[in-house]
Amino acid sequence: MVCCAEGLCGAPRWVEIGRRPRRALSVYLESRRRNTRVESPSKKADHGAVIATAPLGRGRARWFRGFVAGCVLVVAFGVIIESPGRAPVRLTVKGIGDGPVAPGPNNSGVTDGGVAGTGGFRFGGVLNDAGRYTDYRTVTGQLATVRKVLVTPEGTITMTVTIHLGPSEGSPPWTITEATGAYAGMRGKGTLTVDNYQGDPYTFAMTGTISR
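-> structure tokens emitted (212 positions)
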């Protein structure tokens, strides 16, 4: 609706309005659908909406989603390890010796608590550290006890493995008896699944769970 001139017919001037507000409204609604940002209309006479298109690019959106996911994983990992009373989580240890196990005085292995072997290892599961291990072996009757000291830049975990000599009784159990540094307060248990004590180099594998 357009008047011929302002004031001649006693009505406001419609020349600057007409269809433009309807067009601005459609642009505004389309921008909302596309998730763009709409600023306030300008103070110009045409009252057209000023559109500032600021959609989040695919690259930035992908980075943002990855950043949020990473934060969630970090928090979740901290909750699993640091919060007491949480359910135990899986841990594996795989090691390769510097050579064969020490034969001991009678070629039956170390029996007096001395060093039975050394080498490198790597954690798996909830931990991803690697380091060096030292085994100390004691034998009392038909029971061999191996104190396995695992050292990484983050701290030290000591596991005690109990091995019944003679006929096999399944996989020997292990428990965490001491933990320092970043591992302080850690508890855990599991089994020695691979004990290639006749190999050169010696290899072993352990699996179990840990908690705090």
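The first strand starts at residue 37 and ends at 38.
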